[in-house]
Specification:
six-stranded antiparallel sheet; mainly beta; Jelly Rolls; 115 residues
Length: 115
């Protein structure tokens, strides 16, 4: 993490600077779904991802994606949030592989471009 990021549960705190963010997340049988990068300190959306679709009537899955450059003028706490139209309580944000490994349903990559 380069020593400048603080990770707390589902939130990441970044110092001031310019960043590139890339994220993907799985949706399963949730119809339309989308990612957003949310500034929890200010209650603002930094970026919206493309809308993805995973048909709720079939065994359909799909990835939502987000890519953006943003600048923070002060340290801020951010969350990657994933919203869907149709809730699937047990597996809507991804089906387990069942291989006995740690399951990963979303990733967020951050690159600091300028301090």
């Amino acid at each position: 993490m380069g020593g400048f990021v603080s990770l707390n549960n589902a939130a990441v705190t970044l110092p001031a600077g310019t960043y590139y963010a890339r994220a993907v997340a799985m949706g399963y049988r949730v119809n339309r779904h989308r990612l957003r990068l949310f500034n929890t300190d200010d209650g603002t959306t930094l970026a919206l991802g493309v809308v993805a679709f995973a048909d709720s009537g079939t065994a359909d899955g799909g990835y939502a994606a987000l890519s953006t450059v943003f600048t923070l003028s002060a340290p801020k706490t951010l969350e990657l949030q994933h919203r869907c139209v149709t809730t699937q309580a047990t597996n809507g944000f991804g089906r387990a592989s069942g291989w006995g490994d740690v399951e990963i349903y979303a990733t967020l990559e951050l690159w600091r471009l300028k301090p």
